[in-house]
Specification:
With about 150 residues, the chain is mainly alpha-helical. The chain contains 6 helices and no strands.
Length: about 150
């Protein structure tokens, strides 16, 4: 009797785990675009390699260029958020750890706000930046294999 209860318990846990995996696999399905690059990591690339791809691909090049420009919005937002929140925390608390945590949180919140600003300013919502990034990685993989 104990054996069947143990098998049933294992079966219940296995079903639960499989359902859990399916649930999260569905939410992170966009990672499937990158799975082929995860198994065998790509060699490092430089800014000139990205510029070469942008010039060579008339479809995905402009999208990737716009996505690269959006990073500047995120960086600006991150710096403004980090410095301003840390400054306010330091002004009112004079606590080093409070100012440090505010600096980190402000950087994250600022980056998020900057990316949202870029999304609207550069109209990234109209572009498929994920496809452009995956296409660049595929191009880089083919180019780096040709070099080796």
């Amino acid at each position: 009797m104990g054996e069947s209860s143990e098998a049933s318990q294992q079966s219940f846990l296995r079903r639960h785990w499989e359902g859990y995996k399916e649930f999260w696999a569905e939410r992170f399905s966009f990672l499937d675009n990158y799975s082929r690059f995860i198994d065998k990591p790509l060699p490092s690339w430089s800014a000139s390699d990205v510029d070469e791809f942008i010039a060579s691909d008339p479809v995905h090049g402009p999208t990737l260029k716009t996505a690269r420009e959006a990073v500047n919005f995120g960086l600006t937002g991150s710096v403004i958020g980090a410095v301003s929140t840390a400054g306010v925390a330091w002004k009112y608390s004079r606590s080093v750890h409070g100012a440090g945590l505010s600096f980190l949180a402000g950087g994250v919140f600022g980056w998020t706000f900057g990316q949202e600003a870029a999304n609207h300013w550069l109209q990234l919502y109209r572009l498929d930046t994920l496809a452009a990034q995956a296409k660049f990685m595929e191009w880089w993989q083919n180019k780096s294999v040709g070099r080796s």
